[in-house]
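User: Hey, quick favor. My workstation is busy. Could you predict this chain's structure for me?
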Amino acid sequence: MTTSDMPTYFKPGPAETVSAPTDPQLLAFHERLPGYAPTPLVRAPGLAAALGVRDVWVKDEAARLGLPAYKILGASWAVYRELESRFGPFGAWQTLGEVAAQLQGHGPLQLVTATDGNHGRAVARMARWLGLSAHILVPHEMVPARIAAIEAEGAAVEVVRGSYDDAVKAAAGLAGNRRLVISDTAWAGYTRVPGWVVEGYGTIFQEIDRQLSAVGAPGPDLVAAQMGVGSLAMAAVQHYRAPGRDTRVVGVEPTQAACVLRSLQAGQLTEVPGPHPSIMAGLNCGNTSPLAWPTLRRGLSAAVAIPDVLTEEAMRHLAADGVVSGESGAAGAGGLLALLSGPGAAFARTALNVTPDSSVLVLSSEGATDPAAYTRVTGRSAGHA
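Assistant: No problem, here it is.
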């Protein structure tokens, strides 16, 4: 399949600068969570050769705070900030057990969210760390392995007969004084929590800056970010399109759930109704978060929608470079394969100012969250690239 076969969007003119200061307490907060350590930044020479660039750096989120995806960064920060806004301010603390002690007398409290997998598990983990209950709503097409992983955190899982977007609507209806909805997508009247989720992802990029500096490498010229509702891509744009930076950011979605790309093409928020059957389960979203939309519209240089076969190809490339990346995790790399190789590559490379001397950053946003599928695609064990 060639680039010309896939839906693409290139922003007319240069992407804009986006100003979004990061909370100075963010990284210190994450450093106090159980098992915190920066995730690896891996050089991927095989993928670099396939893309025709000097360097590809892969931020490997396969093991983040004991979970197989980056989502815990946003979920933990949003839960903490929402709890503090309702029941705080919290006194000084060093462990989450000390936060939990300060919540006594306000309970019982429950965290609620909708998920395609990783965000829900992250919310459930935060609930377990704080001694709270969790109610997680999931679309009916979610694979059993991801449901089991959420239940293993001690959460109650409700399967919604419908899409991820239907689960979001159902979760919103459960909000109450003792029931906090921790969603990574926004809707009318609900933007505070999703904003904290996006802000929480900023730790990824602070780590990357430090890791590149430690090896004397320059910042990336191009970044690929997966897009479901658009929160991770929003965080990438906020970091790499901040004043003084000129990195291009490309957003990547599944072909049948390309709500951001369709919105960019239409110039306004546009729904892509389900079903969304892609194996990129974490990206199967029919609506762009209205919180993310203005930032994505201004700051993305391009967007591409890819079929499952390309994320599978990217999984194999990443495995060969030593990175275990699941179907959603490899989508960013798959998008770059779509844009920078094949018959349409010359136009894309010119539009994105990509040369053989370019440095590229790929966000591998999850590990093998469906181990059987990972082995089927790559021929390798989920525990080893």
